[in-house]
Specification:
Number of domains of chain A: 1
Structural class of chain B: mainly alpha
Strand order of the largest sheet of chain A: 4-3-2-1-5
Distance between the termini of chain A: 35 Å
CATH architecture of the largest domain in chain B: Alpha-Beta Complex
Structural class of chain A: mainly beta
Order of helices and strands of chain A: EEHEHEE
Radius of gyration of chain B: 22 Å
Largest sheet of chain B: 2 strands, parallel
Number of strands of chain B: 4
Strand content of chain A: 35-45%
Strand order of the largest sheet of chain B: 1-4
Strand content of chain B: 5-15%
Number of strands of chain A: 5
Oligomer: heterodimer
CATH topology of chain A: SH3 type barrels
Helix content of chain A: under 10%
Radius of gyration of chain A: 14 Å
Helix content of chain B: 40-55%
Chain lengths: ~100, ~220
Amino acid sequence: MTEPTYPVGARVRVKALYPPGHVRTPSYCRGRTGVVERYLGTFPNPEQLAYQHPKPERLPLYRIRFSEPELWESYEGGDGDVLELELYEPWLEPAEEKAP
Amino acid sequence: MSDTHEPHHPEHGMYAVDPTHHHPTQPDEEDLPLAHYQVVQIAVTELLIEKGVIGADEMRRQLEKMDAISPAQGARLVARAWVDPEFKARLVADSHAAALELGIDLGPIPIIVLPDTQTEHNVVVCTLCSCYPRYLLGFPPDWYKSRAYRSRVVREPRAVLAEFGTELPDGVRIRVHDSNADMRYLVLPRRPDGTEDLDETELAALVTRDCMIGVHLPEAPARG
């Protein structure tokens, strides 16, 4: 298993990219900042798999945790509610530490 | 149910009045136009069989196997985790290995087990399509695939849970898990109070499919 670039707890931002074709990064999290919940290992790139690429590259996959109130305007629920999902490393970039 | 006499079903009376009345016939599957991917699926199936890649019986057997998988398998895992904390730890750490201890094969896709706690409740959705731990629980319910569930449970999980009749106590935080890529998820709910006398089989009967998706909580059987 390759060493992950982002350790558990690292703050990362999801790139706000809108490429055409099959991607598995839901639009609601693009441009948003979360933290690494766990590293999952490497998996074949779904953006190549979807088009029958003969040798899809393996990408590091993470579970990223977002704050629900930060994700949705006028969120009705607990301040501590979170949403977690799986994101491939090329979609992530380092984010600054949270302002106090 | 009350033990008073049931009135006749209104349809019976209707037939008595008008014996020529018929309900409109439902179209057979073949009467509806085939969608693109239905045609592709039929064509690929026929080709695979014609070219001898798979046999028709092999295909039928696999379908039968998939259809036979039921949430009862997941319920066995949950019940064992309730009675055996060490098993629970192993299940959370490596679900495939732990399930094999009970003779359950979780299949080729990793499954992450999400234990609920007194202060944390888990609920699972696939916003992009309908990813679901099929090798463990069988086919997902139709609502799991609906756009309403997929779009709403991420942004208003408490309202959606309430529509399932599930009220979480104050102070419980919700973790919504979008099953959007290579993992599948199983919620490990908390053992309900008042079940101290139940054995593992009786406990498993309390664990429904909806509890393992996280839209409901297991309930102790009513004392009678």
